[in-house]
Fold:
Amino acid sequence: MPRGNANRRLLDEYMSAQAAAEKFCVLEKEAGTDWMPSPSPHTYNMWDGIYAECVYETRKQQDARLRSLLKSYKNED
Structure:
């Protein structure tokens, strides 16, 4: 996508929105732990697993959309 193209700006906005959506995963995790963060970086509980799954699913959906977009672009050539 060339610089200055409006679609490039839309793609950048989409990527930013996906990064922001990942913050919801933190909210979901901390709601389950009564709003307490993990005790330390090396201590994990089931809510950390739920957080990781949330991030994974968010990124998986993002990857599918981007691959679909790329496939559509390649089919136009």
The chain has a mean pLDDT of 85. Residues 11 and 30 are 30 Å apart (CA to CA).
